Amino acid sequence: MSAMATLHHYPLCPHSRFIRLVLGEFGLEANLVEERVWERRRDFLEMNPAGMTPVFREDTGLTVPGAGPIAEYLDETRGLALAERRLLPEGPGPRVEVRRLLDWFSIKFNDEITAPLVLEKVMKRFMAREEGGGPPEMSAIRAARTNVRYHRLADGQAELAGRLRAELCRSRRRGASLLRRLSRRRALGRG
């Protein structure tokens, strides 16, 4: 690729994190544009009327919204170079299994673990009381932690689990940095 593609993402968004992991698997770099979806920027909404991250934009202008479509698009356009390490296998049965796992991770795991933890441990700190802000609700955190038990990856997926864990650690560090910036802005009355 002569020009670099752009990934509109949000550091704490699990779907964005997944696509950053996919880009890493392909050895691709992209310009990362932090998108604050709650700001509902007109240019971003023109790329993705759903107003959600991630959105991948080729230097040609082709725009691909959503984690699943982006992963499949990258596999279709760059996957052949990875041979047996492609994200999607050749056969329809194994492809269905990959799509099932993607759906499980991006919907069920997010709804039952990631979203409640991010809301309770991060977002509530910066929300006004009338918007649901305040101290974390410990019952929601305990429920999310309990749900982890039911979502553990099988032993045969240990390599994938290791790569996901490494990306989550990098994302946690970026999240901590983001929290510090938001705290400073709030202290200065700009947040």
Chain-wise SSE layout:
Elements: E1 5-9, H1 14-26, E2 30-34, H2 42-47, E3 55-57, E4 63-65, H3 67-78, H4 92-121, H5 138-150, H6 158-187
Parallel strand pairs: 1-2
Antiparallel strand pairs: 1-3, 3-4
Helix pairs in contact: 1-3, 1-6, 4-5
Shape from CA axes? globular
> What structural class do helix, strand and pairing data support?
alpha+beta
Strand order of the largest sheet: 2-1-3-4
| Uncertain ranges | none
State the major sheet: 4 strands, mixed
Mean pLDDT: 80
SSE sequence, one letter per element: EHEHEEHHHH
Helix content: 40-55%
Total count of helical runs of at least 4 residues = 6
Radius of gyration: 18 Å
Number of strands: 4
Oligomerization status of the protein chains: single chain
> What is the CA-CA span between the terminal residues?
38 Å
Proportion of residues in β-strands: 5-15%
Write a brief structural summary:
This protein has six helices and four strands.
Describe this structure in words.
The protein is an alpha+beta fold and 191 residues long. The chain contains six helices and four strands, in the order E-H-E-H-E-E-H-H-H-H. The protein has helices at residues 14-26, 42-47, 67-78, 92-121, 138-150, 158-187, and strands at 5-9, 30-34, 55-57, 63-65. Strands 2-1-3-4 form a four-stranded mixed β-sheet. Helix 1 (14-26) packs parallel to helix 3 (67-78) and helix 1 (14-26) crosses helix 6. It starts with a strand and ends with a helix.
Features:
4 strands; globular
